[in-house]
Structures are given as structure tokens and as C-alpha cells.
Design brief:
Layout lengths: L13 H13 L6 H14 L5 E4 L2 H11 L7 E5 L5 H8 L3 E5 L10 H7 L4 E4 L11 H11 L2 E5 L7 E2 L2 E2 L6 E5 L12 E5 L2 H11 L20 H11 L2 H18 L12 E2 L5 E4 L4 H12 L27 H9 E4 L7 H18 L1
Parallel strand pairs: 2-3, 2-4, 4-5, 5-8
Antiparallel strand pairs: 1-9, 6-7, 6-10, 8-9, 11-12
Amino acid sequence: MNEFIPAAKPIIGDEERAAVDGVLRSGMVAQGPEVAAFEAEFAAHFVDGRPVVAVNSGTAGLHLGLLAAGVGPGDEVIVPSFTFAATANSVALTGATPVFADIEPETFTLSVDSVRASMTERTRGIMPVHLYGQPALMDELGELAEERGVSLFEDAAQAHGARIGEKPVGTFGAFGMFSLYPTKNMTSGEGGMVSLADDELARRVRLLRNQGMERQYQNEVVGFNARMTDIHAAIGRVQLGKVDAWTRRRQENARFLDAHLEGVATPIVRPGVTHVYHQYTVRVTGGRDRFVQALKDEHRIGSGVYYPIPNHRLPSLARFAPGLDLPETERAAAEVVSLPVHPSLSDADLERIVEAVNTVAKAGA
């Protein structure tokens, strides 16, 4: 029997284990020199040297970024509904209101027209998600934000290394958040990185992550414990040296799938952007759930459905969107399937994925 091919596969090697052991031997386990070094290296690698603050999760990064930007009760922040709930959760946690807008069908990212139609006098910001590793329409959204006098934020949880032209994601808005969860394009075990537009915003996030203080017992604001440990930072520093090769492999795998898949709608990449393929997401019309089950049961191919319930219909968030109609979001939620694209795939794995998808798609046609 063929070995099961998982939809995602975190890669942790001997170098990461040695780095963790080095931290444990040092006795400096909490936030310390490894975190500071990771921040500097991540900034240089991904966001053109903008100030970067490490936190203990991607959700914490979004939450603290919004608070540092002054978002709070009475404000509205426009977000996609077709994404993980952390995006809207972070807005709600500030006391502000998440306002859900629809997506572009080609890229699964925020629709500029829908954002424009969703704006009110209470709109404080727009927070697109670079979903699946493809940049959102940042130039157009940036122009809209400037026209209306609101802030632009970035949920770059899935988009390490993605670019529009030569400009990396995480450098368009007041802040950009990158997740370091195990299944992301690189990991620190758990954690997040917040890229900030200026030093003052970065200082506010540093205060908020550490009980409101930069110097011990001199608390300036009410803050949180959202620090990253040196253990996690040590893992992340090692992964920084590997992520570019992994991204190239993801892109090569995606090109192979593009060239050989039949019967499904493969990803559309906008001209001039760099897609880093956190997920390789296709559309299956009619019988998506049967398609997923057949891949698993008949061909031992894993896949993922991200995200089957739009945020505006989740029990936790539906109160913010009574009666809201987002047709492209609903269509995507019913049709998307993410196929394996991770860098651990062999050539034989890719051929098996293609054969399985084409067989199942043909059977369901």
C-alpha cells in the first residue's frame, strides 16, 4: 500500500534540536539574546529592515499591532470573512468591530470594491490577508485607505517572502504580522513576528508584549505577557537559513501541479507578484467533500479545506454581521481544496497527487 501523503508536514531537523539544546544549556530560556537576534535577522530577511517585534503567536501579533495603532472601542476594521478566525478575533479583542468584506474570486483576497462598499464613518482600518501565500491587492487597497484617511494593516501569516514587484508583504501597512505556527512556511514551534512602519509603533508593541514595560518594574501601560522565548527564537533562526530553499521547492511543486492537473481550477497568480504557496488551493465544483474523501480513502492523498465556514457565519463572530451576503466568500468556502505542496514532497509524490486528482476529478465529472 502506498504511504499516506499529508497535506502539510513541518520540517524540524538536527540543527533546530542543537539550537534548542544550546539555549537550554545557557540557562537563558525566556526572552533574551536569541529573540533579539531573531528579530534583527527576520527584519533583514523579509521586510527590508523595518522594525520587527517577536511575540508568542500570530494572533497576539495582530492583537498587539492593532492596539499599538490605536484601534479600540467605537472603531471598525474591514477584514475578509474567508480566512482563519484569528484575523477577526484580533479586531474584536481590541473592542473594535470586525466588518466583513467579500473576496476576489481569482485570488481569494479582499475585493477592493467590497471594501469600499463596507466603509463607514467609523472605519479605522483595512486588514487584508495574503491568503495561501499570494499577496492581496495592496496597491489598490493602499490607495483606498489613503483616499479615506484610514490605516492599512497586513495579515501576512501565510506569506513569508511574498512580494508585489520588489516590495515584500509586511512593508505596505502600519504593521504586518507573520505567523510561525508549525505548518507555516517556516516555524519557531509557535510564535509570530510583527513588522512595524516606524520605531514608535514598534516601541508600543514591545511595551504591550511585556506587561507594559521596557525596563523592569517601570510599567508605562497596561500590557500582556506575549513574549517569545529564546527556545522558540533559536528554532526560528535556524529555519531562516532554510526557508528560501523551501519556498523555491514549493514554487517548483506548484508549477508541476499547474502543468499536469486536470478537472480542477488551479490557482491564478496575479502578474508581477511572488506567490509563496503556503497552500496550493484549487476549486472543485460539485461534490467537493466527496472529492476530498476519495483522495484520502482511495489514493491516500491528504488535503485541506481552508475554510469551510466563513467567519461571518461562525457562532463566535456572526453577531457582527447579521444578514450579511458575501457570495464569492460562500462560493469559495464550498469549492476550495488545498493539495499537498510542501517541500518534503518527492517527484514520485507529485506524480501520485496528479494521478489521484485527475482520476477523482474525471470520475466526478
